[in-house]
Amino acid sequence: MPIPDPSPDARAVVTGASQNIGAALATELAARGHSLIVTARREDLLNTLAARLTDKYGVAVDVRPADLADPATRQTVRRTRRAPDLDPVRQRGHRDLRSRCDT
Prior knowledge:
Blueprint: E1 11-15, H1 20-31, E2 35-40, H2 43-57, E3 61-65, H3 71-81, H4 97-101
Parallel strand pairs: 1-2, 2-3
Helix pairs in contact: 1-2
């Protein structure tokens, strides 16, 4: 699926965004002009990433620390994913998050 164009009324959710592939995906989306919701366990790393992306690309980045191994937290992320202002771009920080959230 191609990445949609950025919209001022939409955000993309990136899980596992504190490092590695998740951080790279968040950076690429921000560089393309997408506002983001970033989640991972490490709030300190998310805050650093959010500040860098906001400063460099001028996008809004909402930090939501989350441990996706916790069932209650997964439900919160699931509700976030279904918000009407989200772009259909996802990166699974937890290998089976989608199957767990969609049940």
